[in-house]
Amino acid sequence: MSEFRQRIEAAIPALRRYARALTRDAETADDIVQDTLVRALRSEHLFHGGDVRAWLYTILTNLNRNRLRTLSRRPTVTPINDNDAAVGPEAGSRDITRALDELAEDQRATLLLVVLEGLTYREVAEVQGVPIGTVMSRLARARMQIRAYLDGERPALRRVK
Amino acid sequence: MNDRDPIITEEDLHAYVDGELAAERRGAVEAWLAAQPDDAAKVAAWRSQIEMIRERYGMVGSEAPPERFNLARLARRRWRGPAIAAAAVVAAFLVGGVAGWFARDAEAGSRSDLARYTTDALDAYRLYAVEVRHPVEVSGDQRPHLVEWLSKRLGSPLRAPELDKMGLKLVGGRLLPGPNGATAFFMYEGPSGERFTLYCGRTSDRETALHYRTGDQNAAYYWVDRDLAYVLSGPAERDKLYAIARAAYDQIDLRAPQQGG
Known about the structure:
The structure holds two protein chains of two kinds.
Chain A (H helix, E strand, L loop, with lengths): L2 H21 L2 H17 L9 H22 L17 H12 L2 H11 L5 H8 L3 H22 L8
Helix pairs in contact in A: 1-2, 1-3, 2-3, 3-6, 4-7, 5-7, 6-7
Chain B lengths: L9 H8 L5 H13 L1 H21 L13 H6 L35 H18 L8 E2 L3 H12 L14 E10 L2 E9 L5 E8 L5 E7 L3 E8 L2 E8 L2 H22 L2
Helix pairs in contact in B: 2-3
């Protein structure tokens, strides 16, 4: 197996994790990951070095953006609605999932790339094709909104460690 | 408290939480937080968000990837033709071009046939799969005649895939109206009576690999090979449906080079 492929293969678990959190749907997430991998393999000649993982996140982010754009254009044929059903009764999980649901796509992607995938702000800026200041403001808004959402949703609960 | 503490901005706080702050600034931020309960609460809330997100999604990253992500297999697809963009997309929507490194990658063609074909195919499936006495017009024991007849009506050479290895026998087929005129409809049946149908008609869409669409009880895989769109419909058991669609797809794909248009 070529080094390029080995690096792609090593990134699959992280891609699945990111896609799962980004879409909050296991099936959709794995579909996007598969699409991402096929794109990457097909475009090996377009890859000019650098971090394979960041490159894969870029493909995945764009594919998901296209998916959402298509979904919004065709609201009549989207029978997927069981995001929460699989989550179970664990309140903390359900809350963070819903809080993520509330975010704008770019904010959610930014937050997840930073806190779940461990990318630096600079890497996120490259993945998203925006200035680092935009990454910072997306991150700030995402965190502010999640906090407001969680506080508003369950005022009496406190997280106990 | 130290009067010479620099003013700490919100950006500093994010950088502090995300480990992006230069080491020499950390002490200043910590001192700031000790004196600013609002900011300290903010930082605590952000940390708790991080914890919840990692708790909820982190374990996906330590799962072994399923077999569908076998790179050698995924890579083979690209030799099937330049336009094949592999993979199933839930709700059967084509995925368009990718920006950035792939700015020049062409768009995945018209999206209309995909939606129309999967809708019509699932309608036909629901209508005929429950039919006991007359599910088909021409039965499967007349396979050559059936295929020849439908090929003639569609104006393209067809093939009814052999799915016996999957435990499915050909019940037969019928001619149906479809999005772009005459459409062929083949029905298969498994050992416990479960039915799968292959719906096939002309399209000008670019070639694609399998795309998944699911309804309440039924689901479908859609793909385009040369000038024909195919929809394999059946009960909404994704893995099984995928295996069958894949078998049909492979057989039809292998046939393609010999046809010469």
